[in-house]
Amino acid sequence: MTAIRSLCVFCGSSFGDSDIYRKAADDLGRMIAERGLDLVYGGGHVGLMGIVADSALSAGGTVTGIIPAHLRRAEVEHQGLTRLIEVDTMFARKAEMIRLADAFVSLPGGIGTIDEAIEVLTLRQLGQHDKPSVLVDLDGYWRGFADLLDHVIDRHFARSSIRDFYKVVPDVPGVFAALDL
Question: pTM for the full model?
Fold first, then answer.
């Protein structure tokens, strides 16, 4: 594993049903910038994604967004980023985020966020990268996901070693402790 210089944050394009998600997104963006790390994310100005980016930028951080053309045309792109990369598809977006990041952090989010978290774990299992992944289990958000992975292991559809590919932490400070940052 290489030194961590950039964190990719996967999170919702909505705010969710609790202010704890907004606060965590704000704290995460700020703490990424304060540690001199670059933020890589989906390029939107909406929901938790927008909060993470705005917070990192406000704290003087470098923020790279990767956005598919169809979302850019829908005007959900963040206009104030350090760098915005347009790609053709959601698949290309994930590939570019994975390529640019040294580690991954998943805050709460919807189906897209879950897809991104699964993609990172799948590629790690296949030996396509060795980058760490952290799930921020705010108010038990990722508990069901972790239980599902345990079920997959229990049913012998995956080795127990997949548990080494991710860490579950209860809050944003736990992210940096889990990554030794």
Answer: 0.96
Helix axes 111-125, 90-100, angle to 10 degrees: 60
Specify whether the CB–CB gap between 63 and 39 falls below 8 A: yes
Give the span between the Cα atoms of 29 and 57, in whole angstroms.
Answer: 8
DSSP the chain: -PPP-EEEEE--SS--S-HHHHHHHHHHHHHHHHTTPEEEE--BSSHHHHHHHHHHHHTT--EEEEEEHHHHHTT-B-TT-SEEEEESSHHHHHHHHHHH-SEEEE-S--HHHHHHHHHHHHHHHTTS----EEEE-GGGTTHHHHHHHHHHHHTTSS-GGGGGGEEEESSHHHHHHHTT-
How do the domains of the chain map onto residue ranges?
6-178
167: its two tokens: 């860490």
Query: What is the per-residue pLDDT across 122-154, written as a single tens digit (0 to 9) for each?
Result: 999 999 999 999 999 999 999 999 999 999 999
CATH architecture, range 6-178: 3-Layer(aba) Sandwich (3.40)
